[in-house]
Amino acid sequence: MPTRDIRCPACRRPLPEDPATLNSLDRCPACNAPLTIATFPGFRRTPVAGRAAERITGEGEAACFFHATRKAAIPCDDCGRFLCALCDIPVDGRHLCPTCIDTAHKTGTVRGLERSRTRWDAMVWYANLGLFTVIGIPFVTLFNILVTIFRWRAADSRVANVRRRMVIGTLVSVLACGGLATLILVAFVL
Amino acid sequence: MSDLLHQNPTYRKLRSSLIPLVGSSSYWLAEDHLLVVDVLGVLERYRKFQLEDIENIVIRPNRLRLILGLILGLLLVPFLAMAIGFWIAGLTATDGEGEPWIFAAIFVTTIATILLPILAFILIGGTMCEVRMTTAVQEIRLPGLYRLPKARALVQELQSAAQRFTSSNANAPVP
Q1: What is the complex's ipTM, to 2 decimals?
Q2: Residues of chain B neighbouring A158 (CB-CB closer than 8 A)
Q3: Most confidently modeled of A50-54, A109-113, A156-160?
Q4: Least CB-CB distance to A118: which of B43, B53, B132?
């Protein structure tokens, strides 16, 4: 079993390596700080060596685009460049080169690389805080309407119905604007 | 375009919690990985951890509940005392002299009414804690897990899922 360097989060001193001992600990043996440790199957797993790119051994063998002395193993599914085993990056069932991975991440074309999204509904609701200042009401309303229109297609989330929240937030600001207009009408015109 | 997790049968929600004034975090379990979704302000961030890569999770109780409870308690006690005093003064005053006391009592009672549920929220729910997960290449703090009983329950579920996944992979036929 491989050795793991697991340390107490309080005193940073090494803890016992045996999973059974770790799972039964309720305090650090060194500093007595209370803690609970849960080990997982990965704790006992032997690290697997990564793939090595083969060297070109003879004339006429195709070479990797990024490593001229390494044998090409597979073409990139996006740009078609030949890749060695080291440059081949499997993602979402496709094989991509490092350059295409970088492009795919920037353009958001590969779901598996997605790390974040912008919550446009949260932007609308944070802007609604400006409704508490009377003078901010029309600006907030305009901002919310523009965000809802121009960011409608981009509004997406994995945990919330963003478009519905955007619409409700915008409606709140529109109602506030309408209320303010009515007040001005009643106070100064009628 | 929507790919809401709660509509996706691949994922099962383990837990979600609010991070006061900032956002929320939620934990979603698939067969072979854990997906942590943090919403901080206007950014929704995703982090995926393969169950076979998780080495250990350390839960460390801290004194946050005690410290926050003490601070809020020390703030609340004088407000409660003032509220009681002002109400008594206001209600027992004669010749209309009670009005300023009543206004002061309402003001102080309002503040106490705001502080009291916050104090109750801090005290109820158990000891607070910090949870850290280690893989072969990183050690990260798991957000939104600040209550010991709920953190332990989530870690236990993760452990069971990881054991199930490892057993099913070990038994899988070799192609």
Answers
A1: 0.78
A2: 3-5, 37, 44, 46
A3: A156-160
A4: B43
Q: Tell me: pLDDT of B175 over 80.
A: no
Q: Tell me: the pLDDT tens digits for B31-80?
A: 999 999 999 999 999 999 999 899 999 999 998 899 999 999 999 999 99
Strand partners, A89: A96
Q: Containing H/E element for A38?
A: strand A36-39
Does the beta carbon of A93 lie under 8 angstroms from any beta carbon of chain B?
no
What's this model's pTM, rounded to 2 decimal places? 0.81
pLDDT at B172: 54
Q: How far is B132 from chain A (nearest CA, A)?
A: 9
Q: Do A120 and A155 contact (CB within 8 A), yes or no?
A: yes
B135, A42: Cβ pair inside 8 Å? yes
CB within 8 A of A159, min separation 6: which ones? B4, B5, B6, B16, B26, B37, B39, B44
Do residues A7 and A14 touch, judged by C-beta distance below 8 A?
yes
- Contact criterion met (CB < 8 Å) for B136 and A38: no
* Whole-number pLDDT of residue B2: 58
| Run of H or E residues at B80 | helix B64-92
**Are the Cβ atoms of B55 and A126 closer than 8 angstroms?**
no
B contact test, residue of A6, A18, A40 with most B CBs within 10 A: A40
CB neighbour class for A54 (10 Å; exposed up to 12, middle 13-18, buried from 19): middle
Structure tokens given for A66: 């990024």
- DSSP letter assigned to residue A152: T
